[in-house]
Write a structure and sequence with these properties.
Helices cover 7% and strands 58% of the residues. Strands 1, 2, 3, 4, 5, 6 and 7 form a seven-stranded antiparallel sheet that branches. A two-stranded antiparallel sheet has the order 8-9. It has one helix at 27-37; strands at residues 12-20, 43-60, 65-71, 75-87, 90-100, 106-111, 116-128, 135-138, 143-146. The structure holds zinc ion (ZN).
């Protein structure tokens, strides 16, 4: 066992899925619905496109809570990265996003509901394994991490 990680997960490459998102949908709700409908239980997600407005969060490590940011303007999604694992018995999407606004400023954060899609392209790479990791509450960080 390494000092640098607390869990190693090894699986096999599963389905490779791609989706074009609908104009006007909620980005996180769409990702969540996609993994539920397709029964993706563990894997990685990447996405790009543009949003009409955004909502992201930053985790205050000392206070163990998120602060939320509403960004009420159209932006490019330069990079969206996420993963799927099991939380409360069902597939759960955790994603972070980087945006570019019309002034050339980059910003981003932890993806929340409230990001309205202008256009979106999503790739999902499923990882198959007998027992996908579950997210459980971690008292050290206050986050739900892979148990
Ligand atoms: Zn996050």
């Amino acid at each position: 066992m390494s000092d640098f990680y607390v869990k190693k997960i090894e699986g096999k490459s599963g389905r490779q899925l791609a989706f074009r998102l609908s104009y006007g949908c909620d980005l996180l709700e769409a990702l969540q619905k996609i993994v539920e409908e397709n029964d993706v239980r563990f894997g990685s997600i990447n996405f790009l496109g543009a949003v009409q407005k955004a909502k992201v969060a930053y985790y205050l490590q000392d206070k163990k809570r998120f602060v939320e940011f509403d960004i009420d303007k159209p932006m490019e999604i330069l990079s969206g990265l996420g993963n799927v694992s099991i939380k409360d018995g069902k597939p759960f999407v955790h994603a972070h996003v980087t945006f570019l606004d019309s002034e050339g400023t980059v910003l981003g954060g932890h993806l929340l509901p409230g990001n309205i899609v202008f256009a979106g392209e999503v790739f999902i790479e499923e990882i198959e394994l007998p027992a996908p990791p579950k997210r459980e509450y971690d008292p050290v960080t206050g986050l739900f991490l892979w148990e």
